[in-house]
């Protein structure tokens, strides 16, 4: 029996180039470094107007500073009163712990101009705020990330207990 029509025609079999199955792991496995380098040009990036140095970076809406070491029972009004002496506070964000309602220990304060934010950093960094020392610095900065090292020595580790010999155990 011969059938004429589309069912009679055989579908082409795909040609296998290599019988060995090549398995790779990772996102960029098997790609050459030149391809990876050229793909970086396709991504958007922020321009620094030719300034590649270190220093503060402006956020989208203004100049943001980070105040750390804030006392738990501080309120937004207290921070606003202190930091408004250096210029108009455009935005103030004080994160609160959900369970307790107390501050988490840091605040983000945004100023309109660089000079206002710089004055706040110079005046308040290392000063006392409600009997606690606060540290003030830029929230965003250009350049490489600083390697933060602790001033504390590492904790001493205790020795493990002595091992029991298998021959001495009663079971």
Automatic annotation (TrEMBL):
Keywords: Cytoplasm, mRNA processing, mRNA splicing, mRNA transport, Nonsense-mediated mRNA decay, Nucleus, RNA-binding, Translation regulation, Transport. Gene3D superfamilies: 3.30.70.330. Residues 63-141 form the RRM domain. The keyword Phosphoprotein does not apply. InterPro entries: Nucleotide-bd_a/b_plait_sf (IPR012677), RBD_domain_sf (IPR035979), RNA-bd_8 (IPR008111), RRM_dom (IPR000504), RRM_RBM8 (IPR033744). GO terms for molecular function: mRNA binding. GO terms for cellular component: cytoplasm; nucleus. CDD domains: RRM_RBM8. Pfam families: RRM_1 (PF00076). One of its GO terms (biological process) is regulation of translation. Residues 146-171 are annotated as: Disordered. It is found in: Cytoplasm; Nucleus. Belongs to the RBM8A family. This is RNA-binding protein 8A.
């Amino acid at each position: 029996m011969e059938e004429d029509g589309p069912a009679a025609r055989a579908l082409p079999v795909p040609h296998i180039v290599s019988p060995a199955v090549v398995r790779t792991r990772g996102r960029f496995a098997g790609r050459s470094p030149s391809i990876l380098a050229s793909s970086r040009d396709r991504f958007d990036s922020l321009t620094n107007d030719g300034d590649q140095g270190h220093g503060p970076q402006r956020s989208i809406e203004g100049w943001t500073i980070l105040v750390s070491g804030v006392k738990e029972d501080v309120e937004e009004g207290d921070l606003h009163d202190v930091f408004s002496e250096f210029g108009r506070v455009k935005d103030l964000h004080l994160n609160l712990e959900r369970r307790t309602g107390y501050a988490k220990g840091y605040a983000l304060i945004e100023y309109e101009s660089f000079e206002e934010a710089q004055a706040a950093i110079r005046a308040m960094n290392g000063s006392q705020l409600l009997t606690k020392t606060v540290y003030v610095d830029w929230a965003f900065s250009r350049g490489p990330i600083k390697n933060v090292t602790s001033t504390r020595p590492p904790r001493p580790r205790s020795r493990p207990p002595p091992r029991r010999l298998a021959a001495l155990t009663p079971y």
